[in-house]
Amino acid sequence: QVQLVESGGGLVQAGGSLRLSCAASGIIGSINSMGWYRQAPGKQRELVAVVTRTGTTNYADSVKGRFTISRDNAKNRMYLQMNSLKPEDTAVYYCNAAGAWLTKSFDAWGQGTLVTVSA
Questions:
Q1: Separation between Cα atoms, residue 22 and residue 28, nearest integer Å
Q2: Buried b vs exposed e over 33-69: b needs ≥16 C-beta within 10 Å?
Q3: How buried is residue 102: exposed, middle or buried, by Cβ count under 10 Å (0-12/13-18/19+)?
Q4: Residue 99, φ and ψ in degrees, nearest 5
Q5: I need a surface site. Which of 11, 17, 61, 116 has the fewest CB within 10 A?
Q6: Which tens digits make up the pLDDT trace of 78-89?
Q7: DSSP code at position 16
Q8: Distance between CA atoms of 72 and 82, rounded to whole angstroms?
Q9: Are the C-beta atoms of 93 and 111 separated by less than 8 Å?
Q10: Residue 7: CA count within 13 A, CB half-sphere
Q11: pLDDT of residue 30
């Protein structure tokens, strides 16, 4: 019931910035939390940042102070502002939405957008 599409990835030099966007469609009111995950080649997918319905945020230690997660409810979009990028930030970034509709819980994922940070 929820579909997610990421955009904004690309190639950037270390120290630069990128802003990722996630467009949500479907039964938006059923979403309880949204977050960004990333997966580098040969590594497990990891949580980058999450924001709940009430606005509470949480960040991975590796991105604290550099990344900011936000939501624009009017546009049904979520953003990840990434500053002071490092080569180790290189990964495919995925948008995630979790919630419940009627008696069913769900965990939706976008297709991913590639972020490459050069040294």
A1: 13
A2: ebbbbbeeeeeeeeebbbbeeeeeeebeeebeeebeb
A3: exposed
A4: 180, -155
A5: 61
A6: 999 999 999 999
A7: -
A8: 17
A9: no
A10: 4
A11: 86
